[in-house]
């Protein structure tokens, strides 16, 4: 499902126009991104928890040459689902 399909599904499920649904989906995305940038954890009951995890610097390998490559530290988004889809 892409964003346009999500907007259409939200519009149908919540009995909203597609414009209203798009604004709601866009707002949810903006708030989620802003919270994660500030290092906050975002929990959506019935869906899951988004959090930011710090990855340490490490040494990787160039797959072509096998030479060691230094991979800098970085932040990644982690998602832990709370629902079982089965």
How many β-strands, per DSSP?
A: 5
How many separate domains? 2
CATH architecture classification of the largest domain: Irregular
Overall mean pLDDT stands at: 94
- The CATH H-level superfamily of the largest domain is IHF-like DNA-binding proteins
The CATH class of the largest domain:
Few Secondary Structures
What about the largest sheet? 3 strands, antiparallel
Low-pLDDT segments, ≥5 res: none
Provide the helix percentage: 25-40%
- Backbone shape: elongated
Query: What's the CATH topology name of the largest domain?
Result: HU Protein, Chain A
Could you give the topology of this structure?
Elements: H1 3-14, H2 18-37, E1 42-44, E2 48-55, E3 58-61, E4 68-71, E5 74-81
Helix pairs in contact: 1-2
Question: Could you describe the 3D structure shown?
Answer:
The chain is of the alpha+beta class. It has 2 domains: 1-40; 41-86, HU Protein, Chain A (Irregular). Helices cover 37% and strands 31% of the residues. The chain has 2 helices and 5 strands; from the N terminus they run ααβββββ. It has helices spanning 3-14, 18-37; strands at 42-44, 48-55, 58-61, 68-71, 74-81. The protein has a 3-stranded antiparallel beta sheet, with helices on one face. The chain has a two-stranded antiparallel sheet with strand order 3-4. The chain is elongated and about 55 Å long. The two termini are 18 Å apart. The mean pLDDT is 94.
